[in-house]
Design brief:
- This protein is an alpha/beta fold and 271 residues long.
- It folds into 2 domains: 208 residues, 2-enoyl-CoA Hydratase, Chain A, domain 1 (Alpha-Beta Complex); 48 residues, Lyase 2-enoyl-coa Hydratase, Chain  A, domain 2 (Orthogonal Bundle), CATH 1.10.12.10.
- Helix content is 43%, strand content 17%.
- It has 10 helices and 11 strands.
- Strand 1 and strand 2 form a beta hairpin.
- The longest helix has 20 residues.
- It starts with 5 loop residues before the first strand and ends in a 9-residue tail after the last helix.
- The model has no long low-confidence stretch (mean pLDDT 94).
Length: 271
Amino acid sequence: MNDDRYEDGVFLGTVDTEVVDGHILTMAINRPAKYNGFTPQMMDDMVDAFTRLHEDPNLWAGVIHANGDHFTAGLDLPRWSERMKGGGEGGERRGGRIDPTALGRSCSKPIISAVKGITYTLGIEMMLAGDIVVAADDCRFRQHEPLRGIHATGGATIRMVQRGGWGNAMYHLLTSDEFGAHEALRCGFVQEVVAVDAVFGRALELARVICEGAPLAVQATKAASRRYVVEGERSAIDAFSATQAELAATEDFTEGIASFVERRAPKFRGC
């Protein structure tokens, strides 16, 4: 028994990682008996996992998923109340480490979220902070912070507007309603809806497809799009030439050209 993960006999949860195919980091939310409700200890684990994914050049993509029937019911609020009163819910946006909600430092690698069952509050915010969301057809989404006397601080008020537009975002944020996978698909919050037993496999399949591309080029593509969102169109355009020159100097660019000429699949190395 890992004593620091139990308090008065209650399991405080973990985020368990595994490397698949040498380049994909899977991150499993693990507190199913409590609907995967996030404790501060679990968030520390997730920050560790995101930082590892960001910093390790051999890791090219990440997949977030969950043990049990549900993605997450969100924060286990009683265990966060003191931090929230002190304004520390975001850990000062993780002290320079990678923030799973991407409100501080964001992960440079592509992240696919496989969500299922109850996917409330923080669950929505983490999936929208990533890049692609695969949702099970049994998903139940909800941002109900106003019913708890608080407002969302993990990015929902920003990214639901970005993904779904003002009206769709306000409809779900202000009413605190519960909505399903197909409504989330209509709003652009998720990209695919699949059967619940296929959700993790499909997310992993997408990660494998992404890893067929040159890793540095994939990361540059994500960075260019994020630069547009954060800094604006002009900044994104101004960075194109310099970034392309950097990519053209890599071994993977040489391999990409050679594979095209030789009519074979490329073998990229991330350098």
